[in-house]
Amino acid sequence: MSSQSADVAIVGAGIIGLAHAYIAARSGKKVVVFERNLAASGASVANFGMLWPIGQTAGPMFDLAIKSRELWLEVLQAAKLPLRNVGSLHIACRDDEAQVGQEFAALGPAHGYQCVWLDRKAALTRSTALNPDAVLGALWSETETTVDPRQVLRQLPEFLRERYGVRIECGCPVFAIEQNQVQTPRGAWRADAVIVCNGSDFEALYPDFFARSGLTRCRLQMLRTSVQPDGWELGPALAGGLTFRFYPSFRICPSLPNLRKRIADEMPEYDRFGIHTMVSQTSSGELTLGDSHDYGLLPSPFNREEIDTLILRHLASFIAVPDFSIAERWYGVYAKHLEKPYIRFKPEESVEVVTGLGGAGMTLSFGVATETFELWQAAEYCQ
Q1: Is the pTM of this model over 0.90?
Q2: What pairs with residue 169 in β-bridges?
Q3: Which of 25, 85, 98, 157 is the most exposed place for a label (fewest CB within 10 A)?
Q4: Region 3-9 average pLDDT
Q5: Spatial separation of the C-alpha atoms in residues 263 and 270, rounded to whole Å
């Protein structure tokens, strides 16, 4: 089979790969994307669909999340894909949760976060899902947006094909890259640049690097309700008080250690399974619920009913929705570095590996893709 060519070859059609494809194709590059499965079926479809800048550390990572959000809005509009630009609420039901929320509302704006503290009455006006008997107040942020990841990962490739002529090769694993040659079962492709966005697949390409990279895998359990009746709207994406201990942005809050200690003392099972509680709504009206976090290179293929029960129990303590019946349960796996926000490395000339974005893949994808090509252009300029 004869060799084919592209300006940019991308390995992986998850959201990181598709973001790179969009940025490259928009700049006029000829792009081919290789996906080992018949469609992306990894972490990019097994998540909340939340674009969550408020969770990113102040400074470069928060700025990158905001840049990524801008590009998300651009591509969603161009592709005519629905979004819920609804902001977020971090719900406080205990005094220590309210204290962290109030501290972040006081400190966050100086770092660029567009957030305020809402008292109980104001919080209840933001979402009819909140239990008025439980809520003390909430941290409101306007920058969070929700998409349906399954719909995006299904339709974005078609948009890239139709608008920019991106070649999407599904069911086509890449088994070697050498000297600008991408080897696949369908023949070789020559590319000026190769970008590997292989998520948690550490074994297929460059396994020696991955073995010493510090990357691991994170397994999470999630659930989805049936479509809510009568067009009921969740409003903002919701996070429970447990979430304050999860995202690094909240480390600026002086009272966070006290909250962590109380949860560890009173709710050790939530620490054991790395559970925090969040809710988003799809464009069709289902609610996505979760999640847990279990780190290790060999994630179990078996869900634990205990984890789902704990998630649902905590959610039921601060929300009430028309239909809480569960339609789907699943687990997802993503790549995660326990110290770095993501990993990029160059195993050889003209090849870049980008992975390890953890649970921030949806939030950071387009920003990281832009960064990749800015780095490439800077390197070419210096030469």
Answers
A1: yes
A2: 34
A3: 85
A4: 93
A5: 8
